[in-house]
C-alpha cells in the first residue's frame, strides 16, 4: 500500500510540475534539494548542454538526486513541446552501439545510464560512481514508466519509412535535409540517400512552405503525387522528389543509380 501511495503521489507531482520523490523505489533517500528548471534558466544546470534540450522544444524539468548505500542516481524528467520532440530527444541521446529497450515509446539502459521517452516527457537517470547498475536502473525505469503520463506508442512517422537498407531514423529538430524552410521532421538514412517527412502545423502552412521550397529549386518540373509534387536535381542531394500530403512535406533524395526517388516517394505516401 505504501508503495502504491508513493507512486500515486509522485505521479501527481510530476504532472503538476512539482518535485519527484526518491520514495518511488524502496530503499532510496533524497540527498539534496529537488531541482526545477524552465527554458530560460536551464543553462544554470546544464551549462553548455542546455541548447541540446532547447532545440527539441524543452519546456520544463523536474529532478532529484537519490542515494542508496554508496550509489547515487541523478533523475531528471523533462517536459518537451510534444511527443515528436520527446522521442527526438531520446534518439539524439541514445547510444547507437547499444540495443534499444521497449520502455515507453523507446528507451535504453546501459551500465550507468537509463533514458526513455513517453508522451511529452523525456526521462533520464545517471548513476555514480563507476559500476554496473543495470538491475537498479531497470527497477527505476519500470517504476517511472508506470507513472509518467503519455502514450507509449512511438510517433507514427517512424512506421512510414521502409526498413530495408535503413541505416538510421531520427527526428531532425531544424533544417531538414539542410534546408532551413523545412523546420523540423524525420529523416531516414539509407546507403543510396535519404527519405524525409517534414512536419507542419496545418495543410495551409505546409502549402505555403511547399511553394517557397519549389521556388528555391528553380530548375524543377511538376510531378503527380498526393496534393502536389515536383522533382529536381541538386548538387548535394542528388535526384530529389518532393510532395505534400496534408500538413506533411515529404520525399526522397537519391544519389547513385538503381533507386527511383519518385517510386520511393510513392511508397512512402501510401504509408502516410
Biggest β-sheet description: 7 strands, antiparallel
Uncertain runs: 1-18
Q: What's the count of strands?
A: 14
Mass-distribution shape: elongated
Order of helices and strands: HEEHHEEHEEEHEEEHEEEEH
Number of H- or I-type helical stretches? 7
Question: What does this 3D model show about the protein?
Answer:
This protein has 272 residues and is an alpha+beta fold. It folds into two domains: 2-147, Protein Transport Mog1p, Chain A; 156-271, Protein Transport Mog1p, Chain A (3-Layer(aba) Sandwich). The chain has seven helices and 14 strands. Mean pLDDT is 90; it is low at 1-18.
Sum this structure up briefly:
This protein is an alpha+beta fold. The chain has helices spanning 2-16, 43-46, 50-54, 83-93, 134-147, 203-216, 261-271, and strands spanning 29-30, 35-38, 60-68, 71-79, 106-110, 113-118, 121-128, 166-172, 185-190, 193-199, 220-223, 228-234, 238-245, 248-254.
Amino acid at each position: 500500500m505504501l508503495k502504491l501511495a508513493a507512486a500515486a503521489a509522485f505521479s501527481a507531482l510530476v504532472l503538476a510540475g512539482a518535485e519527484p520523490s526518491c520514495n518511488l523505489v524502496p530503499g532510496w533517500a533524497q540527498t539534496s534539494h529537488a531541482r526545477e528548471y524552465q527554458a530560460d534558466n536551464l543553462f544554470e544546470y546544464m551549462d553548455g548542454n542546455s541548447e541540446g534540450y532547447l532545440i527539441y522544444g524543452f519546456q520544463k524539468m523536474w529532478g532529484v538526486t537519490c542515494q542508496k548505500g554508496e550509489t547515487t542516481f541523478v533523475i531528471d524528467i523533462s517536459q518537451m513541446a510534444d511527443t515528436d520532440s520527446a522521442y527526438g530527444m531520446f534518439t539524439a541521446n541514445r547510444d547507437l552501439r547499444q540495443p534499444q529497450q521497449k520502455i515507453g515509446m523507446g528507451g535504453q539502459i546501459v551500465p550507468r545510464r537509463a533514458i526513455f521517452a513517453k508522451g511529452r516527457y523525456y526521462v533520464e537517470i545517471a548513476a555514480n560512481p563507476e559500476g554496473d547498475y543495470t538491475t537498479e536502473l531497470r527497477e527505476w525505469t519500470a517504476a517511472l514508466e508506470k507513472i509518467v503520463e503519455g502514450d507509449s506508442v512511438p510517433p507514427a512517422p517512424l512506421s512510414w519509412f521502409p526498413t530495408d537498407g535503413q541505416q538510421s531514423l531520427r527526428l531532425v529538430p531544424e533544417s531538414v535535409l539542410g534546408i532551413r524552410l523545412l523546420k523540423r521532421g524525420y529523416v531516414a538514412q539509407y546507403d543510396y540517400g535519404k527519405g524525409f517527412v517534414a512536419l507542419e502545423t496545418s495543410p495551409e502552412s505546409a502549402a505555403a512552405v511547399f511553394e517557397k521550397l519549389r521556388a528555391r529549386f528553380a530548375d524543377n518540373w511538376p510531378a503527380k503525387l498526393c496534393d502536389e509534387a515536383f522533382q529536381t536535381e541538386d548538387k548535394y542531394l542528388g535526384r530529389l522528389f518532393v510532395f505534400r500530403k496534408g500538413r506533411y512535406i515529404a520525399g526522397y533524395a537519391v544519389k547513385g543509380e538503381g533507386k527511383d526517388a519518385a517510386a520511393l516517394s510513392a511508397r512512402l505516401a501510401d504509408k502516410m
